[in-house]
């Protein structure tokens, strides 16, 4: 899971303006990232973790925090593996 966090952080870092983001902080509520960034984030997550995001997956709650992104990726990977 730490490896996943590092990958997600590598995408987020340029947008955080030096802010030290905690894994449970809402990236949208902080105002550092806007809703338009979500599609870039979704595409990155799909490519980096080899998963497919479908309509119901595009809920912003899946992408609000590093922890939620990790949980989402884990759920998607487990669904593919079962």
Name its key features.
82 residues, mainly alpha, Non-ribosomal Peptide Synthetase Peptidyl Carrier Protein, Chain A, globular
Helices, strands, pairings?
Blueprint: H1 2-12, H2 37-49, H3 66-81
What does this structure look like?
With 82 residues, the chain is mostly helical. The chain has one domain (2-81): Non-ribosomal Peptide Synthetase Peptidyl Carrier Protein, Chain A (Orthogonal Bundle), CATH 1.10.1200. 49% of the residues lie in helices and 0% in strands. It has three helices and no strands. The protein has helices at 2-12, 37-49, 66-81. The longest helix is centred in the last third of the chain and has 16 residues, at 66-81. The chain is globular, with a radius of gyration of 12 Å. 15% of the residues are buried.
List the uncertain runs.
none
Order of helices and strands: HHH
Radius of gyration, in angstroms, nearest whole number: 12 Å
**Helix/sheet category:** mainly alpha
CATH topology: Non-ribosomal Peptide Synthetase Peptidyl Carrier Protein, Chain A
Q: Judging from the principal axes of the Cα atoms, what is the shape?
A: globular
The assigned CATH architecture is: Orthogonal Bundle
For this entry, what is the oligomeric state of its chains? single chain
Distance between the ends: 19 Å
CATH class group: Mainly Alpha
Number of helices: 3
The CATH homologous superfamily name equals ACP-like
Give a summary of the structure in a few sentences.
It is built from three helices and no strands. The protein is mainly α and 82 residues long. Helix 1 (2-12) packs antiparallel against helix 2 and helix 1 packs across helix 3.
